[in-house]
Queue: 2 jobs
Job 1
Amino acid sequence: PPPATNTTARLAALRDSMRAHSAHAYIVPSTD
């Protein structure tokens, strides 16, 4: 399996961006 990736900083940036745009959810399609 691939090595684990620390996504803490990326997730925090995503949350900040979503908050700035008043987004409450992000849908990831099953084909991703």
Job 2
Amino acid sequence: MGISCAPEIFQERNQENVGDIQGVLIYFDDLLITGNSIKEHDEILAKVVQRTKFLNIKFNKNKVQFRVPEVKYLDHVSNVAGMRPDPERVKAIVELKEPKNKLELQRVLGMLNYLRRFVPHFSTKTAALRELLEQKVEWQWLGLHSQTFKELKNLICNAPVLGIFDSNKPITLQADSSKDGLGCCLLQNGQPIAFSSRSLTNSEKNYAQIEKEFLSILFAINKFHYYIYDREVEVLTDHKPLV
């Protein structure tokens, strides 16, 4: 019950209140204050406190954390080393049982999809499961699907720590393609910053392999455009004919 657009209005109002303060991230009623040093963090915090005091906004002291070296935010855990999935979210995925119908599979893929940024070639690895959701495909859970399901759980359970992007460090794009999809990774000094992938369309599946490999590079450039715009970038590919 309630006004359907209330969350959007609440988010917009919070943005108006403190969204202009650099270093403050807002997601509904969660405020995350960041800083490159304790001094910078405290200066930003002081601005937030001053602003909210002026607006007569009060905080629940039991839900406030100060100067924490590690924080759980939006089902992710972040610290100076980078970002990893929230262990509670991972535990929930590991404990998932095999779906018994298309509706259950949709829910499972939804949970997995939330953490796809941690899984290389996520689209390719989920292709067999997604095919079961096609309207013309009759539901039939086979050994292939069980194996894929287990592999995805294992990948989530052993997800790498994604580094924090640093505009002062060199940038590397790694791109690759398979018969079902495209995959890419943004790296800095060998550490992954983010993974991304997508499935190939029916027409793209008919491309020559060299065309698919080049398409994966274009996909990587478009996907990580925000990070690489106006920067020198090293592109890695394992397809020698393309080089």
